[in-house]
Each structure stands twice: as structure tokens, then as C-alpha cells.
Amino acid sequence: MIMYLYHAATSPIDPMPLLTELAALGVVAQLVIVNEKIGQKWLKRAEAGSLLLDDKGQLSLLAHTDSGAVKVSPNWLAEQQRVVKAGKKSELLLKAAKPQAGMHIIDATAGFGHDSLILASSGASVTLIEAEPVMYMLLQHELIQMAQQPNWQKLISRLSLQFGDAAQVLPTLPKADRVYLDPMFPQDSYKAAVGKTMQALHLIAKPPTLEQEVTLLTRAKQQLLPDGKVIVKRPLRAPYLALMTPDDSVSNDLVRFDSYFA
Ligand SMILES: C[S@@+](CC[C@H](N)C(=O)[O-])C[C@H]1O[C@@H](n2cnc3c(N)ncnc32)[C@H](O)[C@@H]1O
Question: Global pTM?
Fold first, then answer.
């Protein structure tokens, strides 16, 4: 893959450690310097699935979606209002998970980390697991950048990130009060058109097979403390994960959160 570096001379971030880390995760990336403006014209020509490190130090994934060529990143700052205001009325995830300060939650399918932020807004500690090297790099970069923002430091201190397939990583972690699963689902099972971030994610991460779903849900349940639960996010009308009937469900017009008790 390619890692594009915008305006190398003014980059606030050294790209070399990122390249070294990608190599350690099994991804060989070639560094390409970009000096022209990052607009639609450039994005259209850039290789989809590549990373871009811009002159503000932001790391993004490049993708070609229905809405054109895009760059997407976790961009946790844009989630700030949602995180600050998060409550059981505004966030169905909190209604389903009922997290509390001091709990240990594992978000086994971290993605852009947005749901992790909502879970951590309760005061719980969240371990994020991500299997895709590029997504893991985006998350790690975001964690480092956001840790420098004074009003984010408390929340960031409750987050930790692990690389790998959750089915393998889960048994190595301390038991948890909650395990959250939001695996990819087929793009056509969404009622509404998916946003550009999810479209971009679909280019690199695939929905699990039924066998993988069974392994993931079984390992997640084995990871629970007594009184703990696994919460699974699904499109409203999607079949249950691993075809296993949950103990409880809450839903809105778009999504459903299925809970499996310990
Ligand atoms: C639908 S996205 C999750 C979105 C996330 N909830 C958010 O708020 O941004 C699913 C993510 O889980 C990751 N993933 C899927 N299966 C996984 C597994 N077995 N172990 C670790 N990560 C996994 C995918 O690579 C993808 O990034």
C-alpha cells in the first residue's frame, strides 16, 4: 500500500515510525510525497485503501465511495458534542449496555472508536480491539493526538488499544463487565444509505462468516464477569449474530442492540 505524505517539509509528524509499525503489522507501505492541493482531483487519482498523513498531522484512509473520492479518519473531535451529551435517552447503546463508572468494557470490534467513546463517557474503562492494520493505525494515531488535548485527557486515560482478531485477543484480557460487538454486516442490510466512513470501512473489512460469528460471540460470553453481558449491534431487521437468540433487545428505526447475559 501507499502512505501519502502531504507537504513533507512542514509535516508535524515523522512518518517513519508509522511505516515501521505498519511493517510490524505485516503491511509494507511505500512513502509518496504530495505537494499539490488535496482536493477531489487529487483524491480521485490517489490509490484507494492508502493512508494520507496531512500537514496538520491527521492520518486518514483514502477511499472511493458513492459520494466520490473521500478521506476518512476517526476524527474524535467531531464526536465531542455527542460524547459530552451522551446519556441513555440520546444513545441507545447506553440504554442497552448500562455502563457505569469503574466498569471494564471490551469493544471487540473497534472500527473508528466512536462507540468506544460513548461507552467510555460513562466513566467506564474501555479496551478497544481492532483486527485491520490500517484501522488499528488510524486508532492509535488518534489516541496519541487526542491525548494532547487537555479536555480529552481524562477520557483517553480510560482507553487502551489492542491489535488482532478479537477471537484470539479476548481470552488474553482480564474478564469484563461488558463486551461490545459491532462486526461488519452486509452493506445491503442497512435500511438507510451508509455514510462515507462506513463505505470506506467496507473496502477493507469484510462481514464475518457464520462460523466466525459463532466463535466471536462464544469467546465474548466466556470473557464476562458474573452479571456481565455481551451487547451486539445489528441493523434493525438483520438476523441475530451467530443465529443465537439474545436475552434482551432494544431498537430504534435503524439499529438493534441485542444483549446476551453471562
Ligand atoms: C462496523 S465496524 C465498527 C464500528 C465501531 N463500532 C465504531 O463506532 O466506529 C467493525 C470493525 O470491527 C473490526 N473487526 C471485525 N471483526 C473483528 C474481529 N474479529 N476482531 C477485531 N476487530 C474486528 C473491523 O475491522 C472494523 O474496523
Answer: 0.95
